[in-house]
Amino acid sequence: MGNKNISIIGGGVIGLGIGWQLAKAGASVTIYERDQAGRAASWAAAGMLAPLAEAHTEEPELLNLGCESLSLYPQWVEELATDAGMFIGYRVEGTLIVGLETDDTDQLCHLYEAQQHLGLDVNWLNGREARNIEPALSPRVTTAIHCATDYQVDNRLMVEALQRAYQTCGGVLYENCPIQKIVIENGVATGVQTQNGFHETDVVVLSAGCWSGQIGGLPDAIIPPVRPVKGQMLALQMEEGIDIKAVIRTVRARYPISVYLVPRSDGRLIVGATSEEMGFDTRLTVGGTFELLRGAWEAVPGVYELPILETWAGLRPGSRDNAPILGKTPIENLIYATGHYRNGILLTPITAYEITTLILSGETPETIAPFQLDRFLRE
To answer: Do residues 260 and 235 touch, judged by C-beta distance below 8 A?
Structure first.
């Protein structure tokens, strides 16, 4: 099976991860990327590996998928380090979800109850206990949930490592090479059409993030229901006195957005993120930046003095139910791996391993079975 010829549309972490695993297994793999590899949602992300912190908003299947993918991370990090010769900033200091007002505490209580009901490994803290873990927190923080096993990774380092590992294993990467259409004959995907002509292939993997629905050649009925959800973000430079170790997330019941602060090993502090249905607009706005800075300052007042290093906006690929679309489609030899929404970095290992298994064996692994496209076709 290893000599299969596979075309992957999209060179973000999902496409690169699948490509790396397939190339490593001996397949002949080509990735077509419309822009630069890994410079869209993968680059814009914060790199949080936080299935527990988001448990209350997610279906049990998605929580299980996230927890399983998180459990694969140590193996993934080690394998990437071996093949790419670099580490990806994997950090295990945990996550604190904090509340500052009575309304926030009510919301935290609901989250904590949901986490307890699901049997998750979380602890309820008062403000003093939270500040013992993270001294930079505001004196106004009265309650917190400690998710000791929600970790983080430096997504930009992971992009670089995946590209390096993929190419080291013999994968071919075409950047600035948009796909005009997927060529389908008699219900079978036979290849892809680019500006340079037709490329025949045994399997086509569609992993183009929020652009997945715009690829030509797909019958209307199976166009993946994926839309862009804009996230504005910024990076600060931590300085003496503000040395945050854990990921900090806020719950703000009466504010437009809750923010998160993600410390990087190089001293950057990532602050995110808005969640806006604005199509493919990636402009930064005064309101978005203001809400991020206000949220960060209220949780960690010391950020007031920190320099701003960078501001940006990314487009998360949200599906109709905000869960990923993984696996076979009604078109033979056409596989989807898209719609990861807020969990692309978290779900990269399990997506890469399971889609590779599916392509090489022809069998859909149980873990990804609930996430096939057919859940939308039945509606």
So the answer is: no
Q: What is the pLDDT of residues 61-118, one digit of tens each?
A: 999 999 999 999 999 999 999 999 999 999 999 999 999 988 999 999 999 998 998 8
Tens digit of each residue's pLDDT (9 = 90 or more) over 27-49:
999 999 999 999 999 999 999 99
Q: At what angle do helices 344-361 and 13-24 cross, to 10 degrees?
A: 40
Helices (H), 7-93: 13-24, 41-44, 60-84
226-236: b (≥16 Cβ within 10 Å) or e: bbbbbbbbbbb
Which structure tokens are listed for 216? 């030509």
> One-letter amino acid identity for 21?
Q
- φ, ψ of residue 62 to 5 degrees: the values are -70, -40
Cα–Cα distance, 218 to 141 (Å, whole number):
51
Q: How far is 250 from 26, CA to CA, in rounded Å?
A: 45
Q: Which of 194, 212, 301 is nearest to 12 (CA)?
A: 212
| pTM summary value | 0.96
Number of Cβ atoms within 10 Å of the Cβ of 266: 10
